[in-house]
Design brief:
The protein has 5 helices and no strands. Helix 1 packs parallel to helix 4 and helix 4 runs antiparallel to helix 5.
Length: 119
């Protein structure tokens, strides 16, 4: 990715496609418009010695990814005929889960004298 303008043009192209097709804006379409793979877009990061331009590109990509996420969520909540694809995409691309976190705390309650409580 060469510039912020390239990201902005790709985002505009992806928005136009989504609007014309009546589908949500997706990371997959954004990646196609950028000419990169979805995994590259998901894992895009900047080096510790990044330039100001690199940081600006990263910010534009981050904003575009967040817009794709919002579009997917909103489409799944209102426009979609089936929530299955938005659910899948949110899980695959944005770490959504329908399972409790592994580190969830379990609370157990013990009542002293519970054996003497009448039935």
């Amino acid at each position: 990715i060469q510039s912020v303008e390239q990201v902005e043009r790709a985002l505009e192209d992806a928005r136009a496609y989504a609007e014309a097709k009546g589908v949500p804006l997706t990371l997959e379409r954004l990646a196609v418009c950028l000419g990169i793979g979805r995994c590259t877009l998901l894992n895009y990061d900047v080096a510790d010695d990044a330039t100001d331009e690199d940081m600006a590109i990263w910010g534009a990509i981050k904003d575009a990814r967040e817009e794709c996420q919002a579009s997917m969520m909103e489409h799944g909540l209102g426009k979609g005929n089936s929530p299955i694809m938005p659910i899948f995409a949110l899980k695959a691309n944005y770490n959504y889960s329908d399972k409790p976190a592994d580190d969830a705390q379990h609370v157990y309650v013990h009542f002293d004298g519970e054996d003497s409580i009448p039935d």
